[in-house]
Amino acid sequence: MSKKYRSRNGSLHTYEFYKERRDDPSWEDDFLRIRAIRQRNFLIAIVAVIAVVIIGGFIYEEGQKGKSQNTAVESSSSSSTASSKSKVSESSSSESSKVEQSSKPTENKTSNNAEQIKKFLIGKTYKVVPFLYDGINANQAAHTNKAPQNFVKDNITILHFIDSSTVTQNGVNGNNQQKNENYQTSDSTITIGALKIPYQMNNGAAEFHSWNTEDQNGHKVTWKIEPYHENNNQDEDHHDHNNDDDHHH
């Protein structure tokens, strides 16, 4: 159904009605007015369509940009994650390498000390002596009955290192039967059975430190190790004998 337009006298007619009477002076003004209205409405419709197309295109373009940005973010995130993992892996690998490298000198040092002490000991003879008993001079403790009689002499051990794995043990007075034992070395300890002797290497030479043990009655015994020469031992026996005589007097 065609749209109708109101004339100046108030009647409603279609555009075709006005167009057919455009040459009639009584209808000419109505025709021109109605045609102008139609043209204006047409222009408005065209502008509206263009606006809708532009807005629609803008919305579509923004939507595409949003998708592209999301894709880029996801890609960047994946790339960043992969890069982070790669860096973490490289860092872990680097740290692992550093740990391995830093541990090698320690391992070498440990191995070197254990081997050096063996070479140093071969052919040498040492005396292991208890020299303190509960913090008191061991001879004095024995003389004052705070330690068993002959405590020092009965517990002196002579060690002769035959080779890199064998040591001969013997009591200083021949009280203990001579026997050969295997020994082991670590970076700081010489182990002969239950005997553990602390040491450190300094320019190829061994430095020995005193150490503590506890006897069966709970008394603390402090030990030392020193080079042994039989003549020195005889002198010490004579000195201990004099101390015994002084004690008896």
UniProtKB/TrEMBL annotation:
Transmembrane segments: 42-60
Annotated region (Disordered), positions in chain: 66-111, 230-249
Compositional bias segments (type: Low complexity): 73-104
Membrane found in the keyword field: yes
Basic and acidic residues bias (residue ranges): 235-249
Alphabetically ordered keywords of this record: Membrane, Transmembrane, Transmembrane helix
Protein name: DUF5067 domain-containing protein
Annotated organism of origin: Xylocopilactobacillus apis
